[in-house]
Design a protein that fits this description.
single chain; 299 residues; alpha+beta; Porin; 12-stranded antiparallel beta sheet; 5 helices; 17% helix; disordered N terminus; signal; DUF481 domain-containing protein; DUF481
Length: 299
């Protein structure tokens, strides 16, 4: 299946609508003092969230690696803010992604580093997160995958790092949380209108709570993951998606299923309706359901 460049589904919707719908408005002098800039930033955040919702539903990997960008590429970003006066606070965030694709092999690494100090000069955030994603295609249908995640929250140490710090919660909160899984995947259907791929694998999860950090202990357990990605296009105006993930380990069972309907009502209007079900076996109320509606209108 090589027709990745067809403007179908969400890609077509965003191509038609993104320019007019998400055009940035020039803010006039005085906007900062009057609070206009703050509201404009919030509008941009909402627009970005809607765009991300449509982008996820497009599933750029649904046809395989045919048109993937080759070679090494990526991006890095840094944001810092510091305030003095009525409050002294600082926040620093560094994030980046690096990808390397060559023929049937594709992999990427993502990193986020966040530090913060509250108005009293006490640390209120010190987190590092990393992700890894890799796929190797043996042919158009069969591939192998690897997924990795690692998070560190250095302020979860069982001590009162600043006034108001809840030490009792820190004893059960996770200071470290990591997962590495790998396995095979298979494209059951791969046509112009329908794609369906399934994958399953084994993984290892590493966790350490605040109490375990004090006791110099940690937990390592084996987990198993099964995933399904289904896409079907009825016509140039309507397509559906259904994404399912199931992860089981000694700690608990976690399952998610998101069903989405995407349609273009006109040249200016596109809509996505989704229904997300999340299940965790160790919660008192095990299942959460979320209805989502995203609309893009350009004029």
């Amino acid at each position: 299946m090589k027709k990745v460049t067809l403007l179908t589904g969400t890609a077509a919707l965003l191509t038609a609508l993104s320019a007019p719908a998400f055009a940035q408005t020039e803010i006039a002098p005085g906007a900062d003092a009057t609070g206009v800039s703050a509201i404009d930033d919030r509008i941009t955040d909402i627009e970005d969230d809607v765009t991300d919702d449509f982008d996820r539903s497009a599933d750029s990997d649904r046809f395989g690696p045919a048109d993937r960008r080759q070679g090494l590429f990526g991006s890095m970003s840094l944001q810092y803010s510091g305030s003095t006066g009525n409050s002294d606070a600082q926040d620093l965030a560094i994030a980046g992604r690096v990808a390397y694709n060559q023929a049937p092999f594709a992999q990427s690494v993502g990193l986020a580093i966040e530090f913060g100090e509250n108005e009293n000069g006490d640390k209120d955030q010190e987190e590092v997160s990393a992700i890894y994603d890799a796929q190797y295609y043996f042919n158009d249908q069969f591939y192998a995958f690897a997924l990795g995640r690692f998070e560190i929250d250095s302020l979860v140490d069982g001590e009162a790092d600043y006034a108001g710090d809840d030490v009792s919660e820190e004893l059960t909160d996770l200071r470290r949380d990591g997962f590495l899984g790998f396995g095979p995947g298979y494209r059951v259907i791969n046509s112009d209108t329908t794609t369906w791929r399934v994958q399953a694998g084994v993984g290892v999860r590493y966790t350490q709570t605040g109490q375990q950090y004090i006791d110099d202990e940690s937990d390592t357990e084996t987990g198993y993951i099964v995933s399904s990605r289904l896409y079907h296009r009825f016509n140039d105006m309507v397509f559906i998606t259904n994404d399912t993930d199931y992860l089981t380990s000694d700690a608990n069972d976690v399952a998610t299923n998101e069903f989405g309907v995407n349609f273009r009502m006109s040249e200016q209007l596109a809509t996505r309706v989704s229904y997300l079900t999340e299940y965790q076996s160790d919660r008192e109320i095990r299942t959460d359901n979320t209805l989502g509606v995203a609309i893009v209108y350009g004029f």
